[in-house]
Amino acid sequence: MQRKNLNYIILVTIPFIFFLLLMIFFDNFNIKIVMYAIDYLFLILTFLKQKKYNILSMQFLFTVYHMAYIGLCPIFLVLQYTIMDKKSSLISMIINDSNFFDQQCLFILISYYIFLIATTFFSNDNKIDYSEKNVIKMPDNKILHYSKMISIIMIGISFILEALYLVKNKNLLFGGSLESGRITAMAGNGVFLYGMWLGTFGLAMLYEIVLRKNFSSRIFWIICIIHMLSISLIGFKSRIIVLSLFLLLIHNRYKKIKSKNVIKLGIVGVFLVGALTIARNSMSGVESSSFIETIVTSFANGSINIYYVLHQFPKYTSFQYGYTYLINFIMLAPGSQPDFTIWLKNQIGITFSGGGVTPTLLGEAWLNFGFFGIIMNFFLVGLLCNRLDKWYYKTKNVYFVVLFVWVVTSSVRGGFANSLINLIIYSIMNLILFMLFKKSRRW
């Protein structure tokens, strides 16, 4: 580690601990939340000042996701409670339960601090060339051909599964409460749910081939729109966001996107998600809220879910020691097994219309291994982010790196259990098809 990195860590640590102690020792709730906001903002600003990253670098993306799904959530929850006067029994209970709220804020600050330390310890700044002169090395034509065939087959499998799923569950998906119907339709359909991810992965892989001028861009976008419409009807708007992130990162590697354009796309994305949420709530019989209220509520949900996890584990349910990473694989077996988020919802003992409880990366680490899990998870994620940035600018196949980027970013909200299974299923499918093509003379 360079001396300047050690000095940086010392300079970050002293103010971080100072504000942390102020937050812990003050009894006044308003002062506590202000100290939390100052400390978290301090960590973010020191990261941005020290690390002059590309806006689509892995460290920057993780920071954005951490802010949206973990770091800013307690602040938005307080906004709901005070300014917007949303004093529901649940929000009031969380705000007034000072022990758990303080614990949540403390863990959030420590989680990002550990991530910051990990990225600084093993920084790749002097090894990565972010300029447009850093040209991608092209794989040979045979590998390119195999990739194209594999992506087309995966998209085809996904389209078949999407059509069968829509026909099988049309009464649930398009009748009554859309959200409740969507969740009911998921029961016992694990193979369909995970198999349909192949379309998202296949399109991302095919887009890299389009950028290499080996496939028609017009045909690609037609297929892409059909897939997005299909998964929208099924009720998976998050997968549209995932596919958009895939395409954005792959495009950026071949044709660098200006930071201001990325920010514009991000703002548009937030508005679209808010609009889709309002529309879905309306069609599900849920009382409509204003656009601002919908956005604030969406950001505050992370704090509520973390509270659920901290309150439940280990007082009422013992630590799982890695079991939750296997739950989604059990869902692939015949029968009606819950996925990780539904399992967590059942453990907590709450009922509401819609899906399960997304624990966030912090919550998942806690319910498995406690405080040690939080330290280890965020330190390892920091190391992985550094490595992914290096691979992103060195690899011949950008898509595979982007796939791992998605695993890390999506885990911030839902935990690794919800993304690892898709990575493993895709990898197995890709390996099988690649071996078949390689052995077949016809191809």
State Rg.
22 Å
| Range of strand content | under 5%
Question: The biggest beta sheet, please?
Answer: none
Q: Give helix % range.
A: over 70%
Mean pLDDT: 82
Element-level helix/strand string: HHHHHHHHHHHHHHHHHHHH
The SS-based structural class is mainly alpha
Overall geometric form: globular
Weakly predicted, low-confidence segments = none
Could you explain how this protein is built, in words?
Helix content is 75%, strand content 0%. The longest helix is centred in the last third of the chain and has 33 residues. It is built from 20 helices and no strands. The protein is an all-alpha fold.
Defining key terms:
443 residues, 2 domains, single chain, globular, mainly alpha
Summarize the structure.
With 443 residues, this protein is mainly α. The chain is 75% helix and 0% strand.
Write the layout of secondary structure elements.
Elements: H1 3-25, H2 29-50, H3 58-71, H4 73-81, H5 89-96, H6 98-121, H7 141-168, H8 170-173, H9 178-186, H10 190-195, H11 197-211, H12 217-234, H13 237-254, H14 259-283, H15 291-312, H16 324-330, H17 340-348, H18 360-392, H19 398-414, H20 417-439
